[in-house]
Amino acid sequence: MIDQSALLETLLETIRDAVVVCDAERRLVRVNKAFEVMTGHSTEGLVEGDDRFANLARKSLIDAVSAKGGRWQGNVACVGGTEKAVVISTSAVNGPGTDFPCYYLGLVRLAADAARDTGEQRFGHDQLTGLPNRDIFGDRVDRAVLTCNRVGGSVALLMMGLDRFTMVNDALGHAAGDRLLIEVSNRLRHCIRETDTVVRLDGDKFAMVMTIADMDDSVIVAEKVLHSIKQPFAMDGQEVVVTFSIGIALFPQDAPDASGLVKQAENALHHAKVSGRNQYQFFSKDMNRKAKVRLDLESRMRRALVNEEFTVFYQPKVSADDDRLVGAEALVRWIDPDKGMIGPGEFIPVAEETGLIEQIGAWVLRRSCEQTIGWQKMGLSPVKVSVNVSARQFRSRGFIDSVTGVLGDTGLDPKWLELEITESMLMNDVESAVRKMGAIRDLGVGLSIDDFGTGYSSLSYLGRFPITTLKIDRAFIADVDTNPKTAEIARAIIGLSQGLNLEVVAEGCEISEHVAFLREHGCSTIQGYYYSKPVPADQFQQMLAAGRVPRPKD
């Protein structure tokens, strides 16, 4: 007699098709290697795991095997949260000598493959572009709203319509119009995260469904879409330019349920169309106002770069022993000709989101080096100037070349430049960060870890980072004179720095008690309002000439 268990095991391990196996009670008991390759889920993960995506996949598979008619069509969640549209055909395998199933086999095929073999359209997807269609759209909006109700957060729904698409169809024909829609779809795919959904609803109308933590998240995506779509398309030997109008509605702020969310996004899209096209509009008047303020700020920042409205202030770093001026931190400031001083807390986050921080950061680096070498040429005692580096700057492929270029152009000795980076910037890709930091140190430039202790507390990596300085975050200095816990943390960081032969800088020192504590425990350098706030270059020049920063009278 044939050993059915052994035969089944052999078939499952050798067959190229994905297969799931359920017992007589239709409980999932195993999947084969082909299924694991297709979805990333192993038998152990599906049967015993409690991962959210494994739970979703297991439910879909059990539903499929239980479906009437032995055929089920739908989406299965993969590892990481992406989904695959599949067709599952189920067969019952009866026990020896009985008419009762002892297990069920489900043959899993990608819906696209099944449709190609049968001539059917891919389930839930637009035949022209391959994007999910209106069938999936409703389901994704419903799911996003349910998830938001369960775990919190918000849902952003972006309704998008192409401007001037009819003109393209009329001028170049429907075939060119179809090709344009395909290219638009490809660009939209690059504008979203894996956890978001982009849908072609019909004609030239698309939608995006995404979970967000803040309204600005939807603004960032909308601006990314507008920028991507307005780049010329090559159609039949000529460039075609189209734009998008986008309507944005948020749940639960704008609507109590999924259907209301769709309606409000439609209304916002209509408003975007009649208000001039090539723009996004929020359903909420208040959010429209905030978005316009943000867009205006970005526009004025671009103008500020061209018109040189930015300037560099310098905050002194002072020797804890004798009040000597030993260095400075360069800090960007924006003096708008119409609105006056714009606080960094207002414009830096927008600069980071839009990518303008790279241009601003590069300008600050160059200007700081120019002023530093200028002071040296005046005969003033040289001090090391620290320049903050944003995460986008640090990750840029050309960052090392830009630092090298600035040093070469200005003639500044690298030992008088220090770059300040935050520890959280380094933890996404430690190996790459170490290589880049090594290249910076090879130039002779100093490296400081800013806000130490507030990020990932990366003590296990600290020995690998070729840094020269640790900065104690102001959060540990603010109550160091009254809070034993923060005092102990500050002492530990000072001791750690001394053990690693690093300079330690304490920022945020505001009162004499802060200075007394730091001097007592061996902190070498102090920075904060106790000695001086950040000042313009001419005022800092006067401090350089004096060589000391006098303590205020308590």
Biggest beta-sheet profile = 8 strands, mixed, barrel
Q: Give the spatial strand order of the biggest sheet.
A: 13-14-16-17-18-19-20-21
- Looking at how many chains there are and whether they match, the oligomeric state comes to single chain
**Whole-number radius of gyration?**
31 Å
How many individual β-strands? 22
| Strand residue percentage | 25-35%
Amount of helix? 40-55%
N→C terminal distance: 98 Å
Mean of residue pLDDT values: 85
Model regions low in confidence, pLDDT < 50 over at least 5 residues: none
Number of helices, counting only DSSP H or I runs of 4 residues or more: 21
Structural class: alpha/beta
Shape: globular
